[in-house]
User: Fold this.
Amino acid sequence: MSGSEPAVALENLRVAFGKVQVVDGVDLSLERGQALALIGESGSGKSVTLRAILRLFPEGRSRIEGGIRAAGKDVRALTRRQLADFRGGDVSMIFQEPLLAFDPVYTVGRQITEAILRHETISKDAARKRALALFERVRIPSPERRLDNYPHEMSGGMRQRAMIALALACRPQVLLADEPTTALDATVQIQVLLLLRELQRDLGLSIVIVTHDLGAAVEVADRIAVMYAGKIVETGTAHQVVLNPHHPYTIGLLRSRAEGALAKGSRLQTIPGSPPDLANRPPGCPFAPRCFLAEERCRREMPPVAEIAAGHRVACWRTDEASAAYRAGPTPVRAAEPVPA
Amino acid sequence: MTVPVTAASVALDGGVLAAEDVTHGPEAAFVPSRGFWGHVGHRLVRDPVAMGAGAVILAVVLIAILSPWITPMDPYKGSMLRRLKHVGDATYWLGSDELGRDMISRLMLGSRLSLFIGVTPVLIAFVIGSAIGILAGYVGGWTNTILMRTIDVFFAFPSVLLAIALSGALGAGIFNSIVSLTCVFVPQIARVAESVTTGIRKRDYIDAAKLSGASALTIMRVQVLGNVVGPIFVYATSLISVSMILASGLSFLGLGVRPPEPEWGLMLNTLRTAIYVNPVVAALPGVCIFVVSIAFNLFSDGLRSAMEIRQ
Amino acid sequence: MSVIPDAPDPFARDRGGPAQPLLSVSGLVKHFPVRKAGGKKQVVRAVDGVDFDVLKGETLGIVGESGCGKSTTAKLLMGLIERDSGTMLYDGQPVGERAMPWRSYRRQAQMVFQDSYASLNPRMTVEQSIAFGPKVNGVPAREAVERARGLLARVGLEPKRFAGRYPHEISGGQRQRVNIARSLALEPRLVLLDEAVSALDKSVEAQVLNLLLDLKAEFGLTYIFISHDLNVVRFISDRVMVMYLGRVSEIGPSDTVLDAPAHPYTEALLASMPSLDPDNRTQAALLAGDPPNPIDPPSGCRFHPRCALAEDVCGRTEPPLDTVRPLHRVACLARQPGSGHSAAPASALAA
Assistant:
């Protein structure tokens, strides 16, 4: 790791909407030029964490605590004016649904040139040229013609590429991606994932991708952080998290995948129950009620973060047992009361 | 052999339920169901604007009901000597009108007619318009085209113009102004009812109901009606304010209530001559119309947002 | 004995015996007219000549991307939209005709939708939604409710706690369990699951898949399982059918089709599944661009403009669905002897 400042650094980030503590103490740092995947299920706080980096919440309704630094700036200290420049200029974002990112009444090319002109003082022609170069960069076929398309005239995959071009228009250092491929077909999804990887490599872009799909995360990310109930439970390189998991939740996620089934028609290993109610969190580890290794201590005290190996951190009291259980193969689970998710 | 699924058989095969499907659920997190309207009520109560508006409406309705017994003075008895007293007068708290009648008593009694001719047309139009709109929306096809194109004709006229024209043709009077206002609102409500119903008709649960073998009428009654009435009702409440203003307008033009009955629009008309002598008193009926119609509007807004319950 | 009046029980109602397919679809066609800007009339060939059988007791997976016609096929199979042409035989009886009117067919075939929220009436409790079907079929109200409670328990939702709930008060996975319970309320033999687990989180998806396996075994169900997720389809299906632009491109036992695909499109679909191995990430996408629009599909083989094996003949000849291995049929000229494609095998399959 270099001595330079990380591209994104979150320090004990806490985000609450009313009484609901959605993000509950997230520490995260992303080196420049790296790609990090935040994975978790709905309600885990992964999207909220991502949005906090751009302060995309209504001021009055949310409460943000902790440190947020991105692209060398203290995000929480930015004035309204600085924030507008910061969004898109230093850090930009792509979404699951590209139609929401574009204005339906203007051509895609015009929206990209305008985004460039808003941040930089260059001629209109130069901006248009840059837009064209971006379209080539994200591999949109016949880019010249496509610049004059309206958003609805493009197919889903192409719109996603156009949105990536728009996000890159002002040469940001960090790209945030919120479920960028969830709405896409499989054959298109892999193209977009490969494109993100290529952009990271060629432009030195730092990427944070939020996804619920472990497969998509493995395809793009150098590092993976697993979130559960507003906390990061396990973080490490993709290799460490996927091949050598130490947190029971990560193990559960890996085991519940259909391709992990032992034999056709055999039952899948599942994580019992459903995530906790964030408005009244139980004490101790939030995963304890669903965990196959939970013991008395887990229900009382939040486990500290243990460093398993360099860069591989796990918030669990029983990392050794979890890892051993994973290596031993699928385990039967027994519990009493039926509250399925 | 068959598989009767009853509570008893489930107790027996409870063991089949996969062990991993179950967990220790926090019993504390279990909230008893309130039902849909329970949720709406709960959210409405927490909306201060809607509650304020609701309080105003409630107060006006109470005054309207009780006014014959609680007016401080006789609202019909005038006095040539005490005309156009100012607001804050020792006897006439809110002044007196051009015939020396007590303003506060007349405003109180006037709320009866104003509310009546404001609310009644909307209620009638709600019933007729919903029926037309739901039918058009659910049946679709040609029925929809014919009904909705006919309705569209009414939209060619501004509602004020339509109300005046109809009232003018039918002649003055309370009954006629209610009829003409109803005619103004039926197309508007029908239009909303049609679009709500068309939206509901495309939902998966309607398809699921069709798959269960239910007849169109059963689906309409059980699955559609409950889901469309709420949104249409909310729209209708937002029309009450318009209706009150239009009704007052008709009375103001002499097409509605006739003197000496107190009605806010009519009072505004008769006091118009006194506007230079006593502008505050002349404006009072207008203030009442304004406040009550705004209250209806805000309340309907609150109701709409309270009904937006998603997962 | 069945709870539904005059509906014989699901096992006794079998007519054709185990060899007779439960559902036999042939020549299914549905075109939707659309008007493009400029008033030119065009048709979307959503489903354009689809044949397949669903065997008794099996799970048939249907996979494909957007525009391939899998959802339209689902709606056609349930009669939610009218087919332009084609026949459907349910246990040997033509559906929609005198012997098997839609109403009796639907007692035996039910559907679970993708959107668990939209498929439940928001103003009805869970219990009312499940009891609705039996009620309109003549089951007394009290019995229908009791049955609904039994089914709730069976899908893992404690009736005492869930029966009186409204859809917005329960989680997505719980709602999908309710939808499954409702689909079983009429004691069907065939359940069509249209992307029924796609919107769920992975760990919940696994729970629901397990539930589906249990219910199938317990009630002797036959499933049609539509999904875009090949891993899930491989897990749950006995046979799988791959669709592309309104046509079947490959159908066969799921192990064969997904381990040794014969159609280049199936191969591309499989290659597009993200790898789960960080040391062995996908290097290149086999297909460029998006799946084309079913308006004006390409001539000949519909996949030929994107196909690596495409030759001139592919643009001219529409490949028939031909047997390549026992039970495994493929619509690809490169696999068909004598098709004129240079990669075609020399002689017919000796089987």
